[in-house]
Structures are given as C-alpha cells and as structure tokens.
C-alpha cells in the first residue's frame, strides 16, 4: 500500500547548517528524517500549529508511536478494513502490522483460523514504553471471535503475549475501544463503549486486566461515569452549512493514565464531563464495584469527545469528533479550550504522543460515511494524519 506524506515545515534533529528541500517526486513526498525532530512546547492560551504529517489510504483509528520509532495505527474498524493494523514507514509506505498473515481470518484453503492467529476488530493500539505494542481486538466483526489483547514485541518483532477477554468480561454489547497501560500496578484498563450489536451505550463499563496473571474483571457498568448522556447527540460541524446531528450514544470512550500512574482519566463520548479515579483503587481487587463507583471523581467539563491523551504536566488533550479539532484541559485551570484544528480534520479519533514529543491524531471522516450521510458515502482518500506540539513535554505512548 502506498501513501503520500507531506509536511508544512520540518526540523532536522542534531544538525547544523543543514537545509531540507521539500520536493515532489513521482506525485509523492516521502517521509523525512524530520519525523524524529524534538518538539518544542506551545505557550499557554495559544493555538498549536497543526501539520499534516501523512496521507494514508484508509480511515485512521488509533495511533501509537514507539520509542524505537515505529509508527503504528489501526485502520478504523467502522469501515471494515481488510488490513486491521498498519505501520507507517519512513519511506512513505504502509505495511501490515505485525504482518500480513495476522490480517486474514482464513487460511489459503478456506479454513477459519484460531483466534490467536489473526486480528478481527482493532481500534485501540498503545505502546507500553518497554518495547511492546498492545493491540485491543474487540472480536466483533464477522466471523466473531473471542476478544483479546495482543502484545507484540516491536524490538524483536515477535509475539509476546495474548490475553483473552471471555464472555463474562466482554459481553454481547461490548465494543472495546481504547486502553491505558500501568506498569506500576501491572494492569491494563479498557474503555468499553457498550455499543456492540446496535446497543446504545447503556452497558458501557471499564475492564481491568492483570497483565501478569491474565485475570480480568468488569467494573462500573451502568454507573454515571461510563454512561452516555442521551440528551447530548453528536453535532457535526455545528454552525456550518454542513451541520448534522448524529444520534449515536457512546459510553466510556477515551481513557488515559498520567505519567506517575496516579490517576486514570476516562470519559463517555456523549458526556459533559471527564472523570478520574486513583489507579491504586482500580488495581485493588478487594474493592467492590459500589466502592469503586464512590471513588470516581468528576474532573472537568468538556464537549463530546473521542480519544484522550496527557502530557507530563497533566494537561489533557481531547479529540472533538464533531468539531474538526482537538481540545485541551490544562491541569491548572481544569477549563476546556480549543487547541488544534484544521478544516479537513473530520472526526479525529485516537490521539497519542510520540517519542519526538509531538501529538498525533487522524481524521477518520465518519460523518461523511453513508451511515451518517443520508446513504451517500462521501468519505474518500487521502485520509490525513496530523501532528502538533503539546503545551508541555510529552509522555510517549499516552
């Protein structure tokens, strides 16, 4: 698969008196070594300068950028892509990640593979900062399969671990969206939107997984902090001629853990609040669901949003799916404001900080799909990946 990549400006790391000439070759620009540039931070109360980092051939869902400079993203499963997860190479091409074989459910002679041998429905992808990328496979595409977490060693390029999420943990209404990784507590926490099989988010929950034992539990299902607000439909392009209302109600969606692994932040998409809970409480298996619910805090107000990220100063970044922008909630004010935008940033979803200090997100174009556009599919390639500088130093993988 080929793609083009473009930059509005570039910076060469550790180089003096070097000038980079950006030029068009055979209709495509290649990735520059500028992708490894150290990002400066942005002054408070200013909008970040948004760059188109890459153009790809399919809608982008989740994004993660590893410490050894491997750029991994999921093709948005809403569009049922043949390739579930890809890697963006320095030469401007994409390849299947972790390999081609993992993208196919059937063998060459038509036999259905075991769940361990292929990816089914992947949105959440996260680097753990220790040489592994975790892929969250919700297993809900046909033929359905047992949901699972797949840990891939990106240093040695081999499978590290698979943790299955059985029926009692991932229910029929589950749609496992994103994940946060805690080394301190040896846990992964998953946001379950609760919209599988046409559901309306009323069974959204968090799923807590012990990465050592593989044991998991489902928490907070049906509580305020994970449920959507049914009075807040998604308004796409509000105030513009293209404004439309999307009556999709999505539970726990964005989720992120701060750098000190003290607080876990999460939010339903259709909700005016971001919530948080102490990671120590999440990891305490002795606490009941009711006890955990009482320890959840309302952190700040927000618009309807998808993904979450966080920098080293605990400023939260939110993809505003209906607004062609990314917002920020500064830690010192806890008051939302717009932060990065572009006219073509249609439905930014996942957002993640890379080793170069930039925040990355992609435009998935969901409002232009036939399902949300009166039966007319106006979504089309190229699909854009953006980057911009955070307010403070980034935290790789967040």
Tell me what the structure shows.
This protein has 398 residues and is mostly beta strands. Helix content is 3%, strand content 34%. A four-stranded antiparallel sheet has the order 1-26-25-24, with no helix packed on it. The chain has a four-stranded antiparallel sheet with strand order 2-3-4-5, with no helix packed on it. The chain has a four-stranded antiparallel sheet with strand order 6-7-8-9, with no helix packed on it. Strand 20 and strand 21 form a beta hairpin.
Low-confidence stretches: 1-39
The share of residues in extended strands comes to 25-35%
* Helix content, binned percent: under 10%
The total of helices stands at 2
- N-to-C order of helices and strands: EEEEEEEEEEEEEEEEEEHHEEEEEEEE
- Please provide the count of β strands: 26
What can be said about the biggest beta sheet? Answer: 4 strands, antiparallel
Task: Output the structural class.
Answer: mainly beta
Rough shape? globular
Strand arrangement, major sheet: 1-26-25-24
Instruction: Report how far apart the termini are.
Output: 27 Å
The whole-angstrom Rg is 20 Å
Mean pLDDT: 90
């Amino acid at each position: 698969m080929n793609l083009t990549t473009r930059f509005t400006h570039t910076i060469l790391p550790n180089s003096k008196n070097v000038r980079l000439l950006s030029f068009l070759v055979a209709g495509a620009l290649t990735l520059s070594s500028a992708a490894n540039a150290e990002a400066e931070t942005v002054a408070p109360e200013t909008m970040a300068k948004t760059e188109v980092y890459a153009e790809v051939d399919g809608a982008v869902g989740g994004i993660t950028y590893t410490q050894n400079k491997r750029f991994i993203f999921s093709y948005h499963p809403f569009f049922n892509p043949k390739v579930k997860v890809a890697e963006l190479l320095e030469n401007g091409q994409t390849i299947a990640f972790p390999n081609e074989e993992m993208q196919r459910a059937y063998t060459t002679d038509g036999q259905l593979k075991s769940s361990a041998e292929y990816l089914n429905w992947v949105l959440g992808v996260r680097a753990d900062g220790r040489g592994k990328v975790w892929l969250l496979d919700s297993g809900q595409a046909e033929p359905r399969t047992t949901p699972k977490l797949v840990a891939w060693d990106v240093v040695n390029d081999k499978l590290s671990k698979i943790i299955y999420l059985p029926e009692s943990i991932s229910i029929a209404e589950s749609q496992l969206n994103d994940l946060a990784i805690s080394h301190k507590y040896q846990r992964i926490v998953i946001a379950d939107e609760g919209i599988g099989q046409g559901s309306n988010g009323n069974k959204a929950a968090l799923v807590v997984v012990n990465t050592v034992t593989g044991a998991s539990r489902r928490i907070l299902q049906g509580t305020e902090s994970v449920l959507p607000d049914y009075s807040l439909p998604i308004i796409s392009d509000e105030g513009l001629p293209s404004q439309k209302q999307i009556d999709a109600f999505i539970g726990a969606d964005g989720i992120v853990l701060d750098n000190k692994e003290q607080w876990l932040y999460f939010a339903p998409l259709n909700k005016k609040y971001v919530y948080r809970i102490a990671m120590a409480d999440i990891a305490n298996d002795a606490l009941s669901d009711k006890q955990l619910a009482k320890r959840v805090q309302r952190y700040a107000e927000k618009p309807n949003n998808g993904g979450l990220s966080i920098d080293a100063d605990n400023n939260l970044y939110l993809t505003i799916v209906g607004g062609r922008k990314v917002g920020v909630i500064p830690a010192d004010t806890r008051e939302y404001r717009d932060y990065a935008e572009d006219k073509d940033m249609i439905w930014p979803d996942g957002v993640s900080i890379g080793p170069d200090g930039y925040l990355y997100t992609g435009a998935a174009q969901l409002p232009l799909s036939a399902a949300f556009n009166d039966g007319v599919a106006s979504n089309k390639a190229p699909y854009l990946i953006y980057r911009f500088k955070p307010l403070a130093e980034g935290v790789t993988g967040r």
